Amino acid sequence: MAASVPLPMDPIAEARRQWIVHGWTDAADGMAAFSSVMRAHQLMYSRVDAVLKPLGLSYARLEMLRLLSFSRDGALPMASASARLQVHPTSVTNVVDRLEKDGFVRREAHPTDGRATLVVLTGTGRTLVERATRVLNGAVFEQPGIPEEDLLTLTGILARFRRAAGDFTDPPERPEPL
């Protein structure tokens, strides 16, 4: 959570200074970059959580509902959901369990693969994900607190980092902003 009163100085800049003072100059910029990304994640997640919590959603639950809503039939095998969301199958199972308990998804046997289970978006789930997306877009994504030209630069930098880390490979036609 963000502090209610801003700190009188940037603790990451101070940590960078201390890294240099202690002789870790070659690592100082990397430490500052990693620390900045992690702190930015905390700040961003807090904003998203504040918007979704009143709707009874976490970002993980929203991601699952949104993924299902983007699929052709509102259904995906659990293994596909795990791969596309880049989370462990156990995490998908936990999210699906909670969404199913709340009536937003249901499980069905895969019609052609007896080993697979489909996660299917319900009408209630579709209504909720559309509402949550509108609210999240208006309160956070349309007003991220970062100038638009910087958003594209930031996204590009992070995409290059993710690609180099093996997070994904380039498709034949690269979508924006990668």
Automatic annotation (TrEMBL):
Keywords: DNA-binding, Transcription, Transcription regulation. It comes from the Bacteria. InterPro entries: HTH_MarR-typ, MarR/SlyA-like, Tscrpt_reg_MarR-type_CS, WH-like_DNA-bd_sf, WH_DNA-bd_sf. The keyword Transcription regulation applies. It holds the Pfam family MarR. SUPFAM superfamilies: Winged helix' DNA-binding domain (SSF46785). Residues 30-163 form the HTH marR-type domain. The keyword Transcription regulation applies. This is MarR family transcriptional regulator. It comes from Arthrobacter silviterrae. The lineage of its organism: Bacteria, Bacillati, Actinomycetota, Actinomycetes, Micrococcales.
